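Q: I'm writing a short methods note and want an example of a predicted protein-small molecule complex. Could you take the sequence and the SMILES for zinc ion and return the bound structure as tokens? Please keep the output block clean; save any remarks for afterwards.
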Amino acid sequence: MKYVKNFNLAFIISILLFGCTSTTKKSDSDVDRIQLMILPEFMAMDMSQNGYTEILDNAKKDGALNVDTILVERIRGVSYNLINQTYIFRDDTQDWNWEINVIESESINAFCMPGGKIVVYSGLVNKLDATDDELAAVIGHEIAHALREHGRERMSSALIQQVGILGFAIFLSNQDGSFLSKQAVLQGVALGTTLFFALPNSREQEREADDMGLELTALAGYNPMAAVSLWRKMDAQSDSEPPEFLSTHPSNENRIEDLKIEAKKYKKLYKEHQNK
Ligand SMILES: [Zn+2]
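A: Understood, no commentary inside the block.
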């Protein structure tokens, strides 16, 4: 038991020393907030991989996975143009096992899970009649969330709130003090996937994803102003049936105004990369 206590103490100290970090390099978008990351990165990646596989399996069973090959190719093309520019923000993204899949659905939604696991629902493109620039705005924003590891950050703060740092240290250690028992990982996977989708992004995370997403789209040669038209289309939809995207991305007129101001900053960058 004493060993477990020592382990917990060492774990807490290591969190305090290494758990506070900024996940991305400083760039034009000036996003460099220090983040508290209690959940280890590899664990967030594991959870993401498991959750993603489950979503794809279910879509496949329903005959809804990558049905429209022209749409899939288009979405993958835009996504890879963005992914090719992510090295500006992090050194490790070229090693990520990026995946882009399209699920046939009325839902207006898209997400990028930790480690680059992207899903775009066909409703996003079809219902909003999204242009490539607008598609890049959504996917760029979602990729920015993954680059900043906002999912891992949300899971970390939820875990702290629920069980405290000490509780989490115990959760990660079993009785003989060995690190990360298999059962703990399995519990974590179930909890992590739920937390990823249940918790909305904070306003600060949204601002970061907006700013970094705009820079990313401009770097990839897409018009950053498309973020403004895209959000207007989302807002117009919310009168009839609110897009699912808005449940994790609360929108308002201020946000659109902020996007307009920010997007103008990247006009020059966009022009430089437009015809590359
Ligand atoms: Zn967002």
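A: Remarks, as requested: The chain has one domain: 1-276. The chain has a mean pLDDT of 83.
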